[in-house]
Amino acid sequence: MKQLLALTFITLLALGTGCAWISPSSQTTSSDGIQVHGHWTVTVTNSDGTVDAVHEFDNDLAQLGSDMLTALLAEETSISKWKIGLADKTDDLFLCDPLGILGFSEPWMSMDAQVSRHPLKLGSPLLLAVECNVRASGGVKAYLTDVRTQLSVTEKVDVHSDIGPIEKQIATFTVHTLNPMIEVLEDQILGINVFISFN
């Protein structure tokens, strides 16, 4: 009888251990498929070097961004540049000079991003980074309302054609509307980092 109880206990223990082993692996299987994650950090620094504010948020994959992914995988296009786009409340007169370079003003201003990859982080994310001096409308303040990651892509053409690769219009990859808006002042520095990962 004692042997039967011991055998029953060992069997139950083995089954419990087996269930515990199965459970974590079943959680890694998702019916949602591959997700594109974009995480932003916007650091606003005063001209004296003190940090005024740090804003963190996630973004959404734009429809055109989804189209670009499949075009890249099908080798129909290639990326020539990554950019970060900013818009302000007035849709004009907002200027963010890349450090050491004279900038420009337009409803959506786009800056070339520095691009690197972080293989030691989960998902080996892509890092896009820009830094710029704020030139606010009216010389006082501006409000960032929207941010984007953008790609400048080169479209491949028929190998028998005399036309070389064609540089296409900049395409929006991810986008985010800021709520609340980010207030920035003349002569502040914006440091923007965007991590994009696929998992």
Uncertain segments: 1-30, 100-107
| Total number of helices | 2
Tally the beta strands: 11
Number of separate structural domains: 2
**Arithmetic mean of pLDDT:** 74
Oligomer: single chain
Sheet bearing the most strands, described?
11 strands, antiparallel
Shape: globular
Summarize the helix and strand pattern as letters.
HEEHEEEEEEEEE
Which value, in Å, is the CA radius of gyration?
25 Å
Helix content: 10-25%
Strand content: over 45%
Structural class, from helix and strand content?
Answer: alpha+beta
Q: Kindly report how far apart the N and C termini lie.
A: 53 Å
Can you lay out the helices and strands and say which pair or pack?
Layout: H1 2-28, E1 36-45, E2 51-61, H2 63-73, E3 77-88, E4 95-98, E5 109-112, E6 114-117, E7 126-135, E8 141-155, E9 166-167, E10 171-185, E11 189-198
Description:
The protein has 199 residues and is of the alpha+beta class. It is 19% helix and 49% strand. It has 2 domains: 1-30; 34-198, no CATH class. It has helices spanning 2-28, 63-73; strands at 36-45, 51-61, 77-88, 95-98, 109-112, 114-117, 126-135, 141-155, 166-167, 171-185, 189-198.
Features:
single chain, 199 residues, alpha+beta, 2 domains, 2 helices, 11 strands
In short:
With 199 residues, the chain is an alpha+beta fold. Helices cover 19% and strands 49% of the residues.
